[in-house]
Amino acid sequence: MHVVVVAHTRFALARPFAGGLESVTWHLVRALVARGHRVSVFAAAGSEPIDGVDYLEPETIELSEAARADVSMPDEGNLQRHHAYLALMLDLAARTDVDVVHVHALHYLPTAMAPTLRVPTVLTLHTPPTPWLESALQVAGRSAARGVGRMPHVTAVSAHTARAWRHAVEAEVVRNGVDTDEWTPGPGGDRLVWTGRITPEKAPHTAVEIARAAGMPLVLAGPLSDARYARERLMPMLGDGVEYAGHLHDTELVDLVGGSAAALVTPDWDEPYGLVAAEALACGTPVLGLSRGGLREIVRDEVGALVVPDDRLVGRAAAALPRVLEIPRERCRRYAEDHLGMAAMVDGYLEVYERALRVAEIA
Known about the structure:
Layout lengths: L1 E5 L13 H15 L3 E5 L11 E3 L8 H4 L7 H19 L5 E4 L5 H4 L8 E5 L5 H15 L7 E4 L2 H6 L7 E2 L18 E4 L8 H11 L3 E4 L5 H8 L7 E3 L5 H9 L3 E4 L9 H8 L4 E4 L4 H4 L5 E4 L5 H13 L3 H11 L2 H21 L1
Parallel strand pairs: 1-2, 1-4, 2-3, 4-5, 5-6, 6-7, 8-9, 8-11, 9-10, 11-12, 12-13
Helix pairs in contact: 1-14, 7-12, 10-13
GO molecular function: glycosyltransferase activity
Pfam families: Glyco_transf_4, Glycos_transf_1
Protein name: D-inositol 3-phosphate glycosyltransferase
């Protein structure tokens, strides 16, 4: 089939990835092509090419000086995104060579305009509820109820995320997957590791506190997504066994994570999924995390430990670490292969696509 994957336009789908959303979207596209499907991708300029993929770059708006002089001129970045998605959806509404449109974007327009398309749309929820996307789902739902087009088929990356959205929409769970051919087993080591976006909600500072309480060295890696937080909160904590390795390419991350004794996953929010935990387990590295959001679906007792995020979490996490360090690495790797792999995710989405096409035929 011909699948159009709609990513968001803020970050390119390119390694090193800006975050889990970009990583999952890029790997899904590559896996669909490997399965023999035709794939077109709408993504930010500079996305990493995949053989056989047609890239639909966002259209850029060209405003007149008169429009720019308007006192109500909106933020230009938001206006550019609005223009790009509007142009895309109008183009897709006219196309006759597409079977399914799969939306991974956080923007509201692809969802709100899904009923205008001739083909079914699949929407994947990657985040907690947002007001703009809730609004778009309501608009699409009303259009479908009036017999104008079809409501998107909605999926969520975890059961936790599906529950978070239940007041607005019923979402089928298709969990994120990790490429276990890319994230390969490592030998372990004597240090801890933390990976992810450097932001307050990811809370790498909590990982530093846990490592210090446990008396173990720690390496942090990830993009500085919040420069102020990094400068004022995290960087002053470096030294004395804690170092920041930078924003690493996937191959470097595999070496770092696979060469670590355990991975710390310390979010200060309810993770919609928790891809870094799945990546660590694929490397054979056990996980010590916080019992929040989708992490509860990934980290089981046999491959790690989860600590309740309260005012005693640092001490209890440090106390739990010795048991985590004793978990056999082979068990973590086998668990990732059996439960967290990319193949299961792709199978799940292909089933959703085929079901959506059958429903469209009946309609």
